[in-house]
Amino acid sequence: MSDTFRDPQGGGSLIVAWQAKQRSILIVGGGSVAAGRVFNALEADAEVTVVAPDLCAELKYRATKKQITWYERRFEDGDLDGANMVLTAIGDAQESRRIADLCKDKRIPVNAADINDLCDFWFMSTHRDHSVQVAVSTNSKAPRLANRIRRQIASALPRGTGLAVEQIGRLRKRIREADPKPENSKRRMTWLTQLCDYWPIEQLAKLDSDNIDDLLDAYVKQSDPKSIDLAQDAGSLSSFSSGVPSPVLPAKTITNGGSGSDGKRGKLILVGAGVGDPELLTVRAHRVLKRADIVLADKLIPEPVLGIVKCEIYTARKFPGAAAEAQDDLYKRGLEELSKGKTVVRLKQGDPFVYGRGGEEVLFFRNHGYEAEVVPGLSSAINGPGLCGVPVTHRGVADQVLVLSGANRNGDLPSVPQYTATRTLVVLMAVKRLAQIVELLRQTSHPADLPVAIIERAGCGDQRTVRATLDTIVDTVERVGHNAPGLVVVGHVVNVLSDAAIQDRYLDPSTLGLHSAE
């Protein structure tokens, strides 16, 4: 034969979607890693048994809610009877190896946390959006990089992808009920394929019951999916800029600043980059970024915002213990460019005057003869939680907001006031010091069951909310990881919109942690 076919590459894993509904999964261990395994198994509708002398707070909650069966003891060989899958998450490597050997003798698939050579399969970095599941494997070579790849894939998905799948699933079921004949299978598939290939995902996500009825009628009549015109809510799943310029502080003329060789005076503009989405920048910020001669940017400015810039972008990399040196580097470069008569944009995260050292920079450049024009940005302290379904105030729930920094000057922890039930605490730059912040809250009488949320990368395509309680948030973040930058929200507002908010793909149900008891 002259035909040629591609050769297998080898070295990969056989990736499948395991149907675990009502299958028995045994998990040995009671810590945060085991809690993650338990959550994944419950998401797959498995029947979960946990064997461990003690449980972390999350697993105790699940045992109390009868979501799992718990045997309060160490593993016994007989625990394998009837198990369809076994997951070990214990610190005793020798015992894990013994359990894995027993499983292999009984032909039971087994995974031993952090011991790759014992595993029949690995857990992948996953994104869940309703019925859509995306999994990334690096075949155990770079699990942290797998998380980054997964975030990038998830951010590339159109907003509403999961809802679109749910609505097509409803329509598909209705079509099969209306036209159940096996010989019409090709007709059903062809029509649905044309619909799915032609219609934007965002529009499919907005289908309602009336729209599905109309589409069913269109199928029965075999109307071309491209010609169907549905009456839908004009609202969009995407965000839009209001088109209203934000107020700015006027630049003042100061005579002792430098000018370029052509006599043109350098101009400094301090711009707030907002919360990550370029559509949430002010109109003036868009215009300024496009007209700059050079942009001096903070380290974590999102790529979509930087994509607006047409000129050189200079970023001083800030590392622990070297923040002052990085700031001095930006000052030096700014003065150099201003002395050449350039328009210099200092691009800062959020709003420059909310824990952004904006005031310090205004004073520094003023002392060198340049008065900054200021273009405010949306502050993540207020708008970040809002974008993720957490209002920082809510009538009858929270009537005050206190914004703190988790890393004050010289690395000091914030001063936390005594607990007030109607106060929302927003703590910026705090996730890396989460355990210390939690301890401060405990010392100031904040209750153990108080809702806490970690808001990550607000306004970006891969934004995420991790919900738990004061008692469980540290273990939850340890389990699901953290994607910087992030902030901490503490208070009863955390869950006030959660039931509705998790319908949005940006509130990832796999990271909600503990809910309040019903």
What is this structure's SSE topology?
Blueprint lengths: L23 E5 L3 H12 L3 E5 L5 H8 L4 E3 L13 E4 L4 H13 L4 E3 L12 E5 L2 E5 L6 H14 L4 H18 L6 H14 L2 H5 L3 H12 L46 E6 L10 H9 L2 E4 L5 H4 L5 E4 L7 H17 L3 E6 L9 H10 L5 E3 L4 H8 L12 E6 L17 E6 L5 H10 L7 E6 L7 E6 L3 H8 L5 E5 L7 H4 L17
Parallel strand pairs: 1-2, 1-4, 2-3, 4-5, 8-11, 8-12, 9-10, 9-11, 13-14
Antiparallel strand pairs: 6-7, 14-17, 15-16, 15-17
Helix pairs in contact: 1-15, 5-8
Helix content: 25-40%
Number of helices: 16
Distance between the termini: 67 Å
Largest sheet: 5 strands, parallel
Count of DSSP strands? 17
Strand order of the largest sheet: 3-2-1-4-5
Structural class: alpha/beta
The general outline is globular
* Unreliable runs: 234-256, 500-518
Strand content: 15-25%
Mean pLDDT, all residues: 85
Structure description:
A five-stranded parallel sheet has the order 3-2-1-4-5, with helices on both faces. It has a five-stranded parallel sheet with strand order 10-9-11-8-12, with helices on both faces. It has a five-stranded mixed sheet with strand order 13-14-17-15-16, sandwiched between helices. The protein starts with 23 loop residues before the first strand and ends in a 17-residue tail after the last helix. The protein is of the alpha/beta class and 518 residues long. The protein contains 16 helices and 17 strands. Mean pLDDT is 85; it is low at 234-256 and 500-518. The longest helix is centred in the N-terminal third of the chain and has 18 residues, at 161-178. Helix 3 (93-105) links the parallel strand 4 and strand 5 (110-112). 32% of the residues lie in helices and 16% in strands.
